[in-house]
Amino acid sequence: MFGWLKRYDVHLCPEVRGIISNNGEPLAGLRVYRELDYDRAYSDSAITDAQGRFFFAEKNIRSRLPGNMLDQSTVRQVLSVDYQQKTYLLWYSSTPSLQPHSAFQQALSDLQCELSSPEQHMVFANEEYPDHPLGVVGICKPASP
């Protein structure tokens, strides 16, 4: 009856690890931005180290929104970086699931982000909901399939 008062666990993003390079050379000192949306926007950033590596911790929240039967919100994940006055879309995904996707956990654990690569659309198998593949747009590719 009072489900709208209850707070629910919402998974916004698994741990993210990646490397940014340009023409194969790691890029140090770049600020990587992460924007996550569900009931509101959550933003943070990380700086690449000398080997071009960056890291974001897993992000989960508690929200009343899932208790609203009319809610059709989605979880949106965006990773981007600015380099030489250009913004590169590293990763963009949107999903209605409030639980982790194993495909995203695996892919985001070891991203290879080559700035000279074109932006592309990738489709991941959805182990949790096989009839609903997961789409991602960006220049990063997971190191392991």
Description:
This protein is mainly β and 145 residues long. The chain is 5% helix and 51% strand. The chain contains 1 helix and 13 strands. The strands form 3 sheets. It has a 6-stranded antiparallel beta sheet, with no helix packed on it. Strands 2, 3, 6, 10 and 13 form a 5-stranded mixed beta sheet that branches. The chain has a two-stranded antiparallel ribbon with strand order 1-7. Strand 2 (16-22) and strand 3 form a beta hairpin. The longest helix is centred in the C-terminal third of the chain and has 7 residues, at 102-108. The protein is globular. The mean pLDDT is 90.
List the helices and strands and how they pair.
Elements: E1 8-13, E2 16-22, E3 25-26, E4 31-37, E5 41-47, E6 53-56, E7 59-63, E8 75-83, E9 86-95, H1 102-108, E10 111-114, E11 120-124, E12 134-138, E13 140-142
Parallel strand pairs: 2-10
Antiparallel strand pairs: 1-7, 2-3, 2-6, 4-5, 4-8, 8-9, 9-12, 10-13, 11-12
Q: Tell me the total number of β-strands.
A: 13
Poorly predicted ranges: none
Strand content: over 45%
Distance between the termini: 44 Å
Helix content: under 10%
What spatial form do the alpha-carbon principal axes imply?
Answer: globular
Question: How many H/I helical runs?
Answer: 1
Average of per-residue pLDDT values: 90
Q: Please identify the structural class as seen in this structure.
A: mainly beta
Report the sheet with the most strands, covering strand number, pairing sense and barrel closure.
Answer: 6 strands, antiparallel
Q: How large is the radius of gyration?
A: 16 Å
Order of helices and strands: EEEEEEEEEHEEEE
* Sheet with the most strands: spatial strand order: 5-4-8-9-12-11
